[in-house]
User: Fold this.
Amino acid sequence: GAGVSQTPSNKVTEKGKYVELRCDPISGHTALYWYRQSLGQGPEFLIYFQGTGAADDSGLPNDRFFAVRPEGSVSTLKIQRTERGDSAVYLCASSLSLGEKLFFGSGTQLSVL
Amino acid sequence: GENVEQHPSTLSVQEGDSAVIKCTYSDSASNYFPWYKQELGKGPQLIIDIRSNVGEKKDQRIAVTLNKTAKHFSLHITETQPEDSAVYFCAASNEKLTFGTGTRLTIIP
Assistant:
């Protein structure tokens, strides 16, 4: 079946703008994760959902970042008042349930000018 | 929280030789240790994983070992091929994955 799908694949925005990044997990996967990867670094945890609720959002860097998963499937990561330091690849992953294997999407490359 | 260290950061290996990447973790509660391969412009791809009740696991040319007492785990790739060239990440998990900083593996033909 289809893997984790992330859209857009690339997003260029100006400092101060609002952006939304979308993730479609593998069908039937109840757990969904967002990670951020800067150049030359490993992915860093942002937030994960079990079903519709955010089980752990301790990795969100500040209150400009917010994520939702209203129906327990698709998730949107929202970034307000973007800053140049937000530029990175934002990765989404899903797993059948908590503690199972994570499967990643190809990511959204966010560039804040 | 969990802290994962990974070495080396870069590794060049002659085609056909073996490659070994090592990681350490800090949280004794971590019980799941996957390895991911990442190619340019793509997301990390799971290549092998091991759980804390097992000391070693092998899948064709790839093997992983885990020493829970020392909090070490390693990836071994034998008979390396040019297509093994990529960045490899280790990770440790209790509920969420914490990644190492990656190893850029280059296979020299």
Summary: The mean pLDDT of chain B is 95. Chain B touches chain A at residues 4, 6, 32, 34, 36, 41-46, 49, 89, 91, 93, 95-102 (CB under 8 Å). DSSP finds no helices and eleven strands in chain B. Residues 31 and 97 of chain B are 11 Å apart (CA to CA).
